[in-house]
Amino acid sequence: IDIFIKAFKILSDWSKGQDFHLKGIVCGNQSHYEKIRMQIKDFNLSSEIKFLGEVQHNEMPKIINGCDLVCIPSREESFGVVAIEALACGVPCVTSDAPGLKEIMEQGMASYSMPCDEKLIAVAMQKLILNQEERVRLGSNGRKLVEKLYDFEQNIRVFSDEFEQLLYEAD
């Protein structure tokens, strides 16, 4: 989250005098709330970034659909559920290339993925902020990617077929 806040500060400084206003939302574990709140305050971003804390799973699509992009500059991720949720909503992602994210992102097709560096993350977010056509393209590609790779029924069939094959080979 600290990389996102630093990248957002870069964007905030850049956006002064632009004819739009940036708003950021941070969701996550309340255990880091005080540290996050202080970083937001120290960067003078209290009016631009809202910390929602932990969000119920069924609320995520509503939050994600209210965003122009989702930024996940994690140093590590076990799987990247939030990225998949964003892509399922047709919202493009800017992510780090951390393990757990880079395996599911299609660079330049459904997201921008790069090293976990606030300047690089800020440039990628700026690029998407300025280019609605690119946001739509990435969002559409992301939705197609999720439909192709993460269809629940299809994944159950594949898993079942592979399990049956293992049982057959064991006999």
Describe the structure.
The protein is mainly α and 171 residues long. 51% of the residues lie in helices and 12% in strands. It contains seven helices and five strands; from the N terminus they run H-E-H-E-H-E-H-E-E-H-H-H. Strands 3-4-5 form a three-stranded parallel sheet, with helices on both faces. A two-stranded parallel sheet has the order 1-2. Strand 1, helix 2 and strand 2 form a beta-alpha-beta unit. The chain is elongated. The mean pLDDT is 88.
Kindly summarize this structure in a few lines.
This protein has helices at 2-15, 33-42, 60-65, 81-88, 118-130, 132-149, 152-170; strands spanning 24-27, 49-53, 70-72, 93-96, 111-114. With 171 residues, it is mainly alpha-helical.
Keywords:
three-stranded parallel beta sheet; 7 helices; 171 residues; two-stranded parallel sheet; mainly alpha
Strand content: 5-15%
The overall strand count is 5
Biggest beta sheet summary: 3 strands, parallel
Choose one word for the global shape: elongated
* First and last CA, distance: 50 Å
Low-confidence stretches: none
Category by helix and strand content: mainly alpha
The H/E string reads: HEHEHEHEEHHH
What is the count of helical runs?
Answer: 7
The Rg value, from CA coordinates, equals 18 Å
**Roughly what percent helix?**
40-55%
Q: How confident is the prediction overall: mean pLDDT?
A: 88
Strand order of the largest sheet: 3-4-5
Secondary structure blueprint with pairings:
Elements: H1 2-15, E1 24-27, H2 33-42, E2 49-53, H3 60-65, E3 70-72, H4 81-88, E4 93-96, E5 111-114, H5 118-130, H6 132-149, H7 152-170
Parallel strand pairs: 1-2, 3-4, 4-5
